[in-house]
Amino acid sequence: MPSLLSASLLGLSLLLSDCARPPQTTSTAPAVAVPDTPSAPLRRTIASPPQVILPAAEPLRMGAEQFERYVPLLKGKRVGVVVNQSAKVGRAFLVDTLLARGVNVQVIFGPEHGFRGEAADGATIKDGKDARSGLPALSLYGATKKPTPEMLRNVDVLVFDIQDVGTRFYTFISTMHYVMEAAAEQNKEVIILDRPNPNGWYVDGPVLEPQFKTFVGMHPIPVVHGLTVGELAQMINGEKWLAGNRQCRLTVIPMQGYTHDTRYELPVRPSPNLPTTHSVALYASLCLFEGTDVSVGRGTAMPFEVIGAPTQPKTRPFSFTPTPNPGSTSPPQNGKLCYGLDLRQTGNDVGFSLKYLLDFYQQSTDKANFFNKGFERLAGTATLRQQIIAGKSEQEIRQSWEPALGQYKAMRKKYLLYPDFK
User: Which of 72, 274, 300, 357 has the fewest Cβ atoms within 10 angstroms?
Assistant: First the structure.
């Protein structure tokens, strides 16, 4: 379900398209010499690390910017990078920066929406070649979502640097899972360069039940998980969620100056249909509509900021008509007038809410066809559909989440690298 590269990578010939402190454990990985700097400690783990307490006033510094902490780990190794348009260090892309520093990059891997992040939602991504570097650029979205032994034949270590938005169904974290899983199976190292979670200031929603595990929900975590990709990688490893209960050789390069109270506006859109800070904030609540007959604005200039359907009352205060565009070549309700709401003025501290979903179901003129078969995959449970049809209130529905949500929050504390939200 889960943007744009600079001219330095414009020549890439891919066909691309667009959804408290724990006990310290001993790693089986060999010791790594890390330069002695006053920055946040590097965490190399196979299970859960100690918590890192960072000064609140410290300037925000991404994992990718801390060359002194991870470039030495790449010396003499063949490197694969898992990146998209968000993998920037300043104004430069990580691939170019690593090559300029003499890192032996062998291959580039791209997630959903491709290496350049420009592909339409759900489109099959093909392999290609980066015209600037001559490196092969291979897709991890389409026929192959998990790196094969052949893909990793000339790779010793995989570097993952992709901006996430903090929701269970955003597929970049599923790509990270499969990269870790392949690495564990093929005895490769994984380095995660951590980035902020723009929705990392809260945890909310139903926890995914195992029978609903798919690429848009691979882990027993809530809709809004409240973790950075580095923290989530440690959870995946520590809880042994990789196939066969394996654990990969994992190194996380934490940010400096980040806390879970940090409100972060993304400098690069994370995917074609999340073009604004506001759409990122609304995404957790509105993505559930993708399992209904309601359009979330794909095929408009306002994706994930408007909602509407032909089956809603014509008295709704806003209307729009989805049509194909580069971000959505076949949008839901294509060419149909949709009646609904314009949410562009609702603010960014909206959190996760069911109010729109409950309202649109209650007002639908075709309740029998309101939900589609994808709803449970996004919700992570069959219960939510049943509760909505039964007329349960949001408060009643939320109460049913509490036991599993409470267990998740307790588990989450073991893997936090940064001070938590208040």
Answer: 72
